[in-house]
Amino acid sequence: MRSTDTKQTHYSMLLICEGTHTEPNFLALMIEDFKETGIIDFATTIKPKPTISPSDDVLDLNRGKEKRKKRLLKNTTQEQQEIENTDFFPGEQPLNWVKGGIDNLKVYDEVWVFFDKDGHPKAKEAFEMARITEIDGKKINIAFSSRCFEYYLLLHFEPLYRAFEKSECNGKNYSKGKRKSKTVSYYCMTDRAVEGKACNGDVCINGYARMKGYWQDSKGGLSTYTFVKDKIWTGVYNAHLIRWKSNTLHQNEYYERNPYVDVDKFVCRLMGFSTINFEESYDVTEDKINYRITRELNTITLTLLNVKTLILPQGSITVHDYKTGDYREMNICAILTEDNPDFSINLENHQSKRILCNLDSFKKILLSPIFPANDNMTLILCLYQKLTLIISNKFRLTPKSWLLFSSKRKCILYDVNVSLLNGLYSSSSN
Fold first, then answer.
1. CA dist 268 to 74, 134, 188, 265, 358, Å?
2. Which of 172, 176, 207, 429 could make an S-S bridge to 189, C-beta 3.0–4.6 Å?
3. Percentage of residues of the chain with pLDDT beyond 70
């Protein structure tokens, strides 16, 4: 992920989306909102084109009765304008979108590709091509959602770790005498729900969202950004939490997992943050001073990579309460030298789901949410392998039954119709 200042006027981004409505419309209104509030100021091209409004329409950003005219930046190049007017990228999905992005790395400063886990035939190839291909020092960024983009929306309301099967309950309907079918909705969790077909929020995300009162429709002509625009930081926190749980439970490639999401990385990117996952590192190069930032649970470690001295004065590290928007400086001064190249920051005293820790050094910002150290996930993982066989033999449980522990260390039997993965978080947190 590039750390170039996205507030510069001549910076440009290309956003390639799998969906034709939900993702483009979400991104269009979010970017417009960020431009209006001064967070970003650069040209963006979204493919396919958003359907919410033409460029001269009025966008309602839910600011009371106030409606603002869409402001266009006149800094697009002729090549970028030509791309905006071209058809969508053909070929095998999602490899076609990655290839389309690579073809335009010379035209744009930054390219992102958005797609879901939809059984695409070339998912592995797409991720591998994005990983190994570099043009002019730039790589393709992928914003991935599993099962679908609506799962990212859901995380703005609650940190639900569940493997949904689809975004909406629907099926195929064949007309008499015709071979072609059309997709019909089962209107899950509405007064028009088709009995025996609608899942009542068990399988589809939109049905679950309606049941909870989060939103009614994600597939219409409106932008889903309006559902979550006041909950952006909540979505960032919960997405990090879900990724942490996923990385704790699984070793397979994350594009094979359900659930999984990292769309929040793009959102943070727009806001000027660079993000890292747990047990990953982020190398910073600034003014010939190189250092590495490593995150393990609630500890951040800075490691000097050359013989220069690095000084982080007091005020460089702040704690952000994303619920209130307040920032507070931490009383920490870090000095890294050749003799003492490491400096660790323990965040145990800031354990709260309302806290984000931001490290700001040389205008580089590390977004790093912190999680409770006593999360019952650790207990489950420690005991899972030892107890499964014993419990199964004693009680003769089916493979669909698993032993879970609540946060109060009470033993419960939880019967699920899918895997442990599907009900783990939601069950243990109740």
1. 25, 22, 33, 5, 12
2. 207
3. 70
